[in-house]
From TrEMBL:
Name used for this protein in its record: Ig-like domain-containing protein
Organism of origin: Plutella xylostella (Diamondback moth)
Domain Ig-like: residue ranges: 33-125, 135-224, 235-332
Superkingdom, taxonomy of origin: Eukaryota
Xref: PROSITE patterns: IG_LIKE
Signal peptide: 1-30
Region (Disordered): 357-381
InterPro entries reported for this sequence: Ig-like_dom, Ig-like_dom_sf, Ig-like_fold, Ig_I-set, Ig_sub, Ig_sub2, Neural/epithelial_adhesion
One Pfam family matching this protein: Ig_3
UniProt keyword Transferase, yes or no: no
Length: 403
């Protein structure tokens, strides 16, 4: 065998043989090209840059090629990009590392990538490029603000695109329950609901408010849309004290609770329908207690006999109107105390009044001490809480602080 080689030395067959022997030696010494690390899967958001790194030892005279496995397209051989894609490039660290760079990844770049060495048989490794897309609300297919009559139904729809397909979660902005009726379990209350559609049926006023649909697919940022649900209904007036007794000369506050949507116009009249306007005698106020309820207050100062009688609080909106009735009557002051003590307790009550005013405007004008509780209704036996101007609060607060 050795003699044969020598005999044909220099000929083309001999060169081939020598190459074959060298190759066998490489194999025997373990010097075949070899991948040092597996090619790693890459997950990247659309628009970002991706890279695959292929590390080949003992490459010898072989070449490294990058191939898109699904289309079998050869992307690059060594550092030379073959495919017609300006976003691709290959870098080589002059040793054993070959990197395929994909700039500004697009959805169509997704797929299996192969790093291949042209041995026989060829050696290769593959990895997957996943291109993800953060969620985005499809506004054309998503509900806008809605108005439904109370007792009606509302279908809230929220669509989002992205990859993987986003999940839609519904929540109420105020943290309230979403009430789902007509499901398999009948009526259920949940803090959040999953799915593109929320069917609200037999809607009540408590379901009014902002609903948030939140689309998320694990690719930041998540997005949300706020959908206002307005529930319309006829105004409702409730009167906590329909009979209010007070001694003449005192101030008294009349109150009505109103629920209405859309927002109502609220006003007070005397029994004969004469509308009450703010002046030295009367002061009116409204305090919001929720999105659709308001507390109406009417302060009548230093009541006289012509102030006694009927009062109406009236609430009107586009759906209808409602009224509440209050009757103001006179009560005799109980046997009066000696003058000096009276003055002192009156001052104490002034202070209490100021304190209670400072504690918040929602305080009711009803009896406030055990001593006062003998009076009926919302009348105050001593000067009732005044609608003290803010500057007065400040002065009084400063006086308190100074003491
Ligand atoms: C790479 O991604 C492919 C396709 O998604 C998957 O089958 C394979 O298990 C992944 N390999 C690794 C190491 O995560
Ligand atoms: C919502 O109601 C519609 C009919 O109005 C119905 O087709 C749909 O299945 C309902 N969806 C859910 C989630 O209950
Ligand atoms: C009450 O609510 C209405 C509308 O919701 C708002 O315009 C108004 O400013 C609120 N008033 C107070 C005192 O909060």
């Amino acid at each position: 065998m050795a003699g044969g080689v020598r005999a044909t030395c220099g000929g083309p067959l001999a060169r081939l043989l020598i190459l074959a022997v060298l190759h066998v030696n490489f194999v025997a010494l373990g010097l075949e090209p070899d991948f040092l690390f597996p090619l790693e899967n890459v997950t990247i958001a659309q628009g970002r840059d991706a890279m695959f790194t292929c590390v080949v030892n003992n490459l010898g005279g072989y070449r490294v090629a990058w191939i898109k496995a699904d289309t079998k397209a050869i992307l690059a051989i060594h550092e030379h990009v073959i495919t017609n894609n300006a976003r691709l490039s290959v870098t080589h660290n002059d040793y054993n590392t070959w990197t395929l760079n994909i700039r500004g990844v697009k959805r169509e770049d997704r797929g299996q990538y192969m790093c291949q060495v042209n041995t026989d048989p060829m050696k290769m490794q593959t990895a997957f490029l996943e291109v993800v897309i953060p969620p985005d609300i499809v506004y054309e297919e998503t509900s806008g603000d809605m108005m439904v009559p109370e007792g009606g139904s509302a279908k809230l729809v929220c669509k989002a695109r992205g990859f993987p397909p986003p999940k839609i979660l519904w929540r109420r902005e105020d943290g309230g329950d979403i009430i789902s009726r007509g499901g398999p379990q009948g009526k259920t209350k949940v803090l959040s609901l999953e799915g593109e559609v929320v069917n609200l049926t037999k809607v009540t006023r408590s379901e009014m408010g902002a609903y948030l649909c939140i689309a998320a697919n694990g690719v930041p940022p998540s997005v949300s849309k706020r959908i206002m649900l307005h529930v319309h209904f006829h105004p409702l007036v409730q009167v906590p004290n329909q009979l209010v007794g007070a001694p003449t000369g005192t101030d008294v506050t009349l109150q009505c609770h109103v629920e209405a949507s859309p927002k109502a116009i609220n006003y007070w009249t005397r029994e004969n329908g004469e509308m009450i306007i703010s002046n030295d005698k009367y002061q009116m106020g409204e305090i919001n207690s929720s999105a659709y309820s308001v507390q109406m207050r009417l302060l009548v100062r230093s009541i006289q006999s012509n102030d006694l009688g009927g009062y109406k609080c009236i609430s009107k909106n586009s759906i209808g109107d409602a009224e509440g009735n209050i009757r103001l009557y006179e009560v005799e002051l109980p046997n009066r105390k000696p003058k000096v003590e009276d003055e002192r307790s009156s001052i104490l009550n002034e202070i209490n009044d100021v304190r209670s005013s400072l504690q918040g405007p929602l305080r009711e004008g009803g009896p406030r001490t055990a001593e006062d509780a003998g009076f009926l209704g919302g009348a105050a036996p001593h000067p009732a809480p005044r609608f003290t101007p803010p500057s007065m609060f400040l002065i009084i607060a400063l006086l308190h602080a100074a003491c």
